Amino acid sequence: MRAPYDLGKCLLACAALATIGCDHATKHVATSALAGRPSQSFLQDTVRLTFAENTGGFLGLGSGLPVEVRTVLFVIAPALMLVILIAAGRGEKFNEITALGWTLFVAGGASNLISRVVAGSVVDFLNVGIGPVRTGVFNVADVAIMCGAGLVVLGQRNKPTAAVPDTEHPS
């Protein structure tokens, strides 16, 4: 008899909800603790906490565009892409690493999309680097997207290959 639920799918749903929850909780804390205040530096300036409201895309690209164009580029298009990704992945058999990667990728994208729909912008607050070599300002959803993409690549590299029949030496 089959269990009434699939434990793997339940765990992936929990990972998605945890990602979205952590992202929004940290954005709320960043807004409360960092907005209107100077950046804070930790670990000999390796980590900086800096409040930034991003109305554009990656690294603020497109933030100067008219609101209608930003809505199409940063709300409607990503929403359609997330729907397509979810629909395309529903019938697939992924290994655990790839499944977790897609889950984190979609959850991070969905979390930033929720922020854009609700607030019209995304709160970014993390910056890391050493000396002059630094990242842009980002958030937990961005980390989930990047980790998810990395796991998808890693999962595809570990994907078992189908056996190829030996046509030169038939049995």
Structure report:
This protein has 171 residues and is of the alpha+beta class. It has one domain. The protein is 54% helix and 13% strand. It contains 4 helices and 4 strands, in the order αββααββα. A 4-stranded antiparallel β-sheet has the order 1-2-3-4. A hairpin with a 2-residue loop joins strand 3 (122-130) and strand 4 (133-134). Helix 2 (67-89) packs antiparallel against helix 3 and helix 3 (96-119) runs antiparallel to helix 4. The longest helix is centred in the N-terminal third of the chain and has 28 residues, at 7-34. It is globular.
Q: Would you summarize the structure shown here?
A:
This protein is of the alpha+beta class and 171 residues long.
What key phrases describe this protein's structure?
171 residues, alpha+beta, four-stranded antiparallel beta sheet
Average pLDDT for all residues: 90
Q: Which descriptor suits the 3D outline?
A: globular
Rg (CA only): 20 Å
What's the number of helices? 4
In which range does the helix fraction lie? 40-55%
Structural class: alpha+beta
Q: Which residues form runs of ≥5 with pLDDT under 50?
A: none
- Total number of beta strands: 4
- In terms of DSSP E residues, the strand content is 5-15%
H and E string = HEEHHEEH
Enumerate the strands of the largest sheet in spatial order, edge to edge or round the barrel.
1-2-3-4
Q: Describe the sheet with the most strands.
A: 4 strands, antiparallel
Number of domains: 1
Terminal CA distance: 40 Å
